[in-house]
């Protein structure tokens, strides 16, 4: 049972490698996206340059986006100030409450929502507990929060076993 909750639905190397058609084919109308190491480098207040164009394409396609982060509002607001994106701060992932708040902000049926994140124990576990599909991306390179660094040690211990049958998006 716990293995199922920790196993993502899809894998992709980089978020910008996800084709917008993929979301349209799956009838996804709303995306919940993690902040640190998914679209920004750790503690950065800017979306990574390689991700900016992808975010603009998602928004232009009509897909709504909400950032779900354990960070505080000022950091998130500054990061997304140039985009029509809402956010949920201090989400306390993997608890369901933050995910449910994000779904409410998207204002689309839960079946049309997908999560994108870089961590198994927070993003994947929270999304699966909430009942939404998740794409697990490789984290952006660089420094990480100390707790994330420790968490990744444990993720690596059994990640290969968890994801051996998960489809890669290409």
Structure keywords:
single chain; 6 strands; 170 residues; alpha/beta; Rossmann fold; 6-stranded parallel β-sheet
Textual characterization of the structure:
This protein is α/β, with parallel strands linked by helices. The chain has a single domain, classed as 3-Layer(aba) Sandwich (Rossmann fold), CATH 3.40.50.1000. It is 42% helix and 15% strand. The chain has seven helices and six strands; from the N terminus they run αβαβαβαβαβαβα. A six-stranded parallel beta sheet has the order 1-6-5-2-3-4, sandwiched between helices. Helix 4 (73-80) links the parallel strand 3 (64-68) and strand 4 (86-88). The mean pLDDT is 88.
Short description:
This protein is α/β, with parallel strands linked by helices and 170 residues long. The protein contains seven helices and six strands; from the N terminus they run αβαβαβαβαβαβα.
